[in-house]
Design a protein that fits this description.
five-stranded antiparallel β-sheet, mainly beta, Jelly Rolls
């Protein structure tokens, strides 16, 4: 008798965000944080659902935005495009030379406006990585986070309280 193919979720993973805490604002939205690369060459998940929270800094707040972008590796090696600073797919600060460079390489996962309230917490719901890459999860992917939530290049995020998660999605025959 034929069975069913059902979605199955693997355990949620909390990404390392050490260098995301106290991240400086980028008025041009070109400087920010890169996550470590997530490899999809062994488990071959169909998708990843990414969610998270950001806690803004307590001082120098301004109305602005926070953007979360997904980057797919160019090859399965993985090969990443060169950045102005930092390394794509390596957890740490990173920047693009221009907005056009970021927009051509990255896919927008989410963006939202922020207000001037100190230490405000903003969250975004689980969002599909595969939908950003034509329905298929890349062999390797990483995130780029940027924002301009402070009036200077001071820290736009608090020293703690921000978190990013991903939940792998697969299909199971039952």
């Amino acid at each position: 008798m034929p069975g069913d193919i059902k979605l199955k979720y693997a355990s949620t993973v909390t990404m390392t965000v050490t260098n995301l805490h106290s991240l400086a604002a980028s008025q041009a939205l070109t400087a920010g944080w890169s996550s470590a690369s997530v490899a999809n060459t062994t488990n071959l998940y169909l998708d990843y659902l990414v969610s998270g929270t950001f806690t803004t800094a307590a001082t120098s707040r301004q109305v602005g935005s926070i953007e979360v972008w997904a980057m797919g590796s160019l090859t399965d090696t993985p090969t990443w495009p060169a950045l102005a600073t930092g390394t794509a797919g390596t957890q740490g600060t990173a920047s693009f030379t221009a907005v056009e460079q970021k927009n051509s390489y990255c896919r927008l996962l989410t963006a939202f406006n922020v207000n001037t309230t100190a230490s405000q917490i903003y969250a975004f719901p689980p969002t599909s990585i595969a939908q950003l890459f034509g329905g298929q999860a890349p062999t390797h992917w990483a995130l780029f986070v940027t924002g301009n939530a402070t009036t200077t290049t001071a820290a736009q995020f608090a020293a703690s309280g921000s978190a990013i998660y991903y939940t792998p999605v697969l299909a199971q025959y039952t």
